[in-house]
Amino acid sequence: MSFSGKYQLESQENFEPFMKAIGLPDDLIQKGKDIKSISEIVENGDNFTVTITTGSKVMTNTFTIGQEAELEMMTGEKVKGVVARDGNKLKVTLKGIESVTELVDQDTIVNTMTVGGLVYKRTSKRM
């Protein structure tokens, strides 16, 4: 299955505690908690471009599986990381945050981020 497509956030769990744990200020947490972000993924072989639009904020990350890339985190900070693919999952660890994006079926993506035992789960559906 290909990750390519546009997906809209359908549900999320532990948004506020997770964002506090990674250092996002309260005003941004309150602004972002009810916004249904849109993720657009372009997969071309091992090359990916992921664009996440949350209100007026647009974050784009481009990477190749298995190669180091500079990736922007939710906090706006840019860090280097290597994205690995394991079947229908993309995995990366950035600054202690483990992120797994799974293509559950052709229309559903589940992104799970874990920091210090705190799990933030986002479920998005293909548009």
UniProtKB/TrEMBL annotation:
Molecular function as annotated in GO: fatty acid binding
Taxonomic lineage from the root: Eukaryota, Metazoa, Chordata, Craniata, Vertebrata
Domain notes: Forms a beta-barrel structure that accommodates hydrophobic ligands in its interior.
Protein name: Fatty acid-binding protein, liver
Main location: cytoplasm
Natural source organism: Nothobranchius furzeri (Turquoise killifish)
Family: Belongs to the calycin superfamily. Fatty-acid binding protein (FABP) family.
Start and end residues of each Cytosolic fatty-acid binding proteins domain: 5-22
Gene3D superfamilies: 2.40.128.20
